[in-house]
């Protein structure tokens, strides 16, 4: 059974990609997760900030 966090990651990881396994996430889906969770507010955290974090972590 997946935890709520694992389930959320999986859902965003496979969003819009029929070939995705849900084990890794692409930058586009990371940005969507950040927007949907209101991490990106356009003032303190921008899409560019989220992209930079993704690039550094991945």
Automatic annotation (TrEMBL):
Transmembrane segments: none annotated. It holds the Pfam family p25-alpha. One of its GO terms (biological process) is microtubule bundle formation. GO terms for molecular function: tubulin binding. GO terms for cellular component: microtubule. Belongs to the TPPP family. PANTHER family: P25 ALPHA-RELATED, TUBULIN POLYMERIZATION-PROMOTING PROTEIN. This is Tubulin polymerization-promoting protein family member 3. It comes from Prolemur simus.
